[in-house]
Amino acid sequence: MKSTLVVGVDGSAESRAAADWAAREAVRRDMHVHVVHAWLWQPLAVPVVQDRGTEARRAREILEETEAQLTRRHPRLSLSAEVVPDVPVPALLRAAKEAEMLVLGTRGHGALAGFLLGSCGQQLIASAECPVVSVRARDGEPVYGGAEGPVVVGQQGGVEESAEVLRFAFEAAAARKVPLRVVRAWSLPPVYGYSPGSMWIAEQFAGLEPFEEAALDQALEPWRPRFPEVEVVAHVERGSAGHVLLSEASDARLVVVGRRVRESAVGTRIGSVAHAVLHHAACPVAVVPHH
Question: Any stretches that span the bilayer, and where are they (predicted)?
Fold first, then answer.
């Protein structure tokens, strides 16, 4: 049985672009695409003319148009589609519960950069149990980034913490037959700001960067033998994780970042690094949940 890739559509150019990206990825990985359109009849308590039958037909037309587009462009695609009677966030979270990944469309850069994803997109990325790929559109087509560029992944923490993120990134690079650029950013611990002597000692041992390079090599060690065909380029740099990752992803075809699964006082969060990359990367971005 094929793994499933779920894509949410709403009739917009962005969601059509996301559906096309999802179809290409499914053909590349021999996966099944399940297209979901969430529609729930919600009469408004204002004097606006509404027709349930008309809205229901439009919901079905959105699916039919998407199916026709994908079938025409990708004849070998394994495809299914459904209208889910619910609002978008819970509908897509349920649909993607057993999926390999969830794909969403997002708006291009605008004046309100903080609202690039839209509230539904942010909720889905923060709550989904599977990786979520955000696809930007230009002229109704997916923005793919560098045509021959690598997959770029941000690595943080130790071996176990980054395992799921690296697995996804290696699989993506292997499927595309492109190199994988693994980026680890680091910054000085606060103690060095208060203790110049500690910094002097660290510099006598060639600084702290060798420790970061060793941590990255250790995180990559389980994955290199599993994907011998993937060329790995490891990059360690001092600086803000978001800035370093974006600078290394200028030619990327896909950027992969992690999202720690944890509850906060205000609910689930995307995380600052993922948030920065989602808003500024010039290619699709995959956010992979991990513990």
Answer: none
What confidence category does residue 111 fall into, taking pLDDT thresholds of 50, 70 and 90?
very low
Residue 288 DSSP one-character state: E
Q: Decide if pLDDT at 115 tops 80.
A: no
Domain with CATH 3.40.50.620 in the chain: 4-142, 151-290
Nearest to 244 by CA among 280, 191, 220: 280
Task: Answer whether residue 84 shows pLDDT above 50.
Answer: yes
Given this model, what pLDDT does residue 264 score? 57
Amino acid at 10: D
Neighbours of 264 (CB within 10 A): 7
CB neighbour burial string for 70-101, b if at least 16 within 10 angstroms, e if fewer: beeebeebbbebebbebebbebbbebbeebbb
Of the pLDDT bands very low, low, confident and very high (cuts 50, 70, 90), residue 145 is confident
| pLDDT tens per residue, range 195-250 | 555 555 555 445 678 889 999 999 999 999 999 999 999 999 988 999 999 999 99
DSSP string, 226-256: T-TTS-EEEEEEES-HHHHHHHHTTT-SEEE
Please classify residue 227 by burial: count the beta carbons closer than 10 Å to its beta carbon, then call 0-12 exposed, 13-18 middle and 19+ buried. middle
CA 117 to chain centre: 12
- Name the superfamily (CATH) of residues 151-290: HUPs (3.40.50.620)
Residue among 240, 239, 253, 241 nearest 281 (CA): 253
The answer to whether the CB of 124 falls within 8 A of the CB of 10 is no
